[in-house]
Amino acid sequence: MSKNTNNPVTYQVKSGEYVSFYHSSVGWFRLVATAHALRRIDHVQPPEDWQSHLSPKLAIFEETEKQLNEYFANKRTEFDLPLDPQGTPFQKQVWDVLITIPFGKTVSYKDIAVKIDKPKGSQAVGQANGKNPISVVIPCHRVIGKNGSLTGYAGGLDRKSKLLALELAETPH
Question: Which of the residues 138, 140, 144, 164 is marked catalytic?
Answer without folding.
Answer: 140
